[in-house]
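Entry 12.
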Amino acid sequence: MNNRLQAQVDPLIERVSQKLGLVNDYVAEGVMKTDVSFIKASLGKVKVYFKKPNLLKVKKEGGISLLPKGGVSVTINSLLNTKQYIALPAGTQEYNGKTLRVIKLVPTDDKLDWVISTLWIDPADALVYKTFTTTKENGSYEITMEYGSYANLGLPSKIIFAFNTKDYKLPNGITLEFGDDDPTAKQKALKNKKGKIEITYTNYVINKGVSNTMF
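Predicted 3D structure (tokens):
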């Protein structure tokens, strides 16, 4: 069984994993912009905390995180750090002037909360530019990334997190624009609309240690 699974580890995925593996933890500063029709929000400074293998928290200055519950945990780091998947090649695709390899990951552990994840990877620099992940309970999410100063560690300069609002699990304390907890109004507001959250990173502090109490 192990030999069969080992044979399906993709060399490009291994290169991506090795690059991400250089980062044990980080604290990143950035600006988050939300584009979710039913939430009153503007630009806000955020701090993002990460610790291997899959601890991640986004903290908004003067408020709480607006990221959907469940979605934020399904990142490239958490997917690849588990090593609990089979990688299946799915051809190539043009994306922003680059020819990216498309690789689908299928989990080998039924307890994981994701069903399938597709990665678009540039083989030249082993960077993931887009992922599309379907989860068991939190719908599907698309994450696109741009890179800058920290590309050598696989860390993006900008991340765009897109999702269907009907799958959105509202964090505690968020007030909808229509105010009342009217189930009909809430269902209508969430149905088949898109939500988007962008984080533009200004700085990373890498491998300086992050306490588990931060999560």
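Annotation: The longest helix spans residues 11-20. The radius of gyration is 18 Å.
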